[in-house]
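Lab notebook, bench 4. Continuing the backlog of folding jobs that were queued last week. Each job is logged with the same field layout so the records can be merged later without manual cleanup. Today's entry covers Histidinol dehydrogenase, a 463-residue chain. Filled in by technician R.K.

JOB TYPE: sequence-to-structure
TARGET: Histidinol dehydrogenase
LENGTH: 463
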Amino acid sequence: MSLSAQPARLNTSAPDFEAQFAARLHWSADTDHAIEQRVADILDDVKRRGDAAVLEYTARFDGLQAASMAELELTQADFKAAFDDLPAAQREALQNAARRVRGYHEAQKKASGESWTYRDEDGTLLGQKVTPLDRVGIYVPGGKAAYPSSLIMNAVPAHVAGVGEIIMVVPTPVRGSVATGGTGVTTAARGERNELVLAAAYVAGVTRAFTIGGAQAVAALAYGTATVPKVDKITGPGNAYVASAKRRVFGTVGIDMIAGPSEILVLADGSTPAEWVAMDLFSQAEHDELAQSILLCPDAAYLDAVQREVDRLLPTMPRAAIIAKSLNDRGALILTRDMEEACAISNRIAPEHLEVSSSDPHRWEPLLKHAGAIFLGAYTSESLGDYCAGPNHVLPTSGTARFSSPLGVYDFQKRSSLIEVSQAGAQPLGAIAAELAYGEGLQAHARAAELRLSTVPPMRGAK
Ligand SMILES: NC(=O)c1ccc[n+]([C@@H]2O[C@H](COP(=O)([O-])OP(=O)(O)OC[C@H]3O[C@@H](n4cnc5c(N)ncnc54)[C@H](O)[C@@H]3O)[C@@H](O)[C@H]2O)c1
Ligand SMILES: N[C@H](CO)Cc1c[nH]c[nH+]1
Ligand SMILES: [Zn+2]
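JOB STATUS: finished
OUTPUT FIELD FOLLOWS
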């Protein structure tokens, strides 16, 4: 069957642009009732029945049969064996990627992740104590592709922050088993473990790991089961089921953000070879049918050229079916009046990844406000950021870059305020606090402050 990919052609000057634009924009799990309902049911079930429910869903959605959760636990020996067995080039690539990601996150910690204090003129000490989380759960996706790079992007900043225990979940679906929501495949004996993922767990350092995925894995981490330890926070990307589950368990545990199906927006001035841009659009479309790839450009002939490259290159891609579905359903090539308008539209979309494919990217960068990551210039392909540039590739999707940031060391830390008031400092602060506390009708607050004054006044409103 020959496939074709026809992203929607939009024109900002067309009278129906706004309607067409809105129709293409953010899809998120919470607008899909069927996914929401299924995820809610899975979470409830795992909360009630623990391991037994996780085993059932793993058989149903991943086609992976196991008699007990112990069978689904990976060991440190598995990690080391996978690492030792890798071809040297893959071992080196993993280590180089981890080294660059570590360097970036160490710099990030230095810049904004350390405790700080100061003393005011009365000798009162004020500040913030930064502490790492005790135990985190990292979700490493594994449904339609394997993601050793996501393991590195989660585990490395957790280590830089000083997290005590890292519990990883990763689905290992049996190939050919399709998570249909029905019974799925129930005869296969073992999921396909990805050796690079196991080796990455060795390189990046993971405490415990389970081959479970989807909403059931998120539930196991959030509520804890007899086998899977309850964590303080769940980080990491995943498909619509994972994103929805994370949103629902927030409050029971912390979460990093909504990092759902991947997105790329390319802002092009027409100076980058069309082939490069077409492949960059493919690079995110190939993740998931629900991924979104958009090109904004003020040059109609360039949009035509990129479409021609899409047509030419698609048949060469092993994941052509996923790419075609993603581009047909969610992709768009948008003709803008100029680059300024393209920047404004990009801000409205707030994409996960934003490539500024221009000969003068620094001219446009100041106009760009909302994006998970901004890639400047024709040589900065988004895929370099996915693996090894250094910054984190776990990024907010579905327009949540308007209020969320990339995964970072800060996601694995929390902060406590530090306050040490000197005797001299207690005098002015006591007077201010007492005044406000009486105003709120909270006498005990007022009195606690006044008792520390050198001259203690009578309590106002005493009985
Ligand atoms: N935003 C980011 O930072 C980022 C980074 C990497 C990957 N991603 C995205 O992560 C996603 C990975 O998705 P994936 O599918 O490959 O792996 P995944 O691990 O996220 O999802 C697989 C799991 O989904 C569940 N599932 C699938 N179909 C189901 C159904 N019908 N009913 C119930 N559960 C079902 C199964 O339990 C399965 O184990 C992609 O969308 C990719 O674009 C995002
Ligand atoms: N582009 C993904 C984030 O949306 C990350 C990734 C991992 N591997 C390849 N790509
Ligand atoms: Zn990617």
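OBSERVATION: The two ends are 88 Å apart (CA to CA).
SIGNED: R.K.
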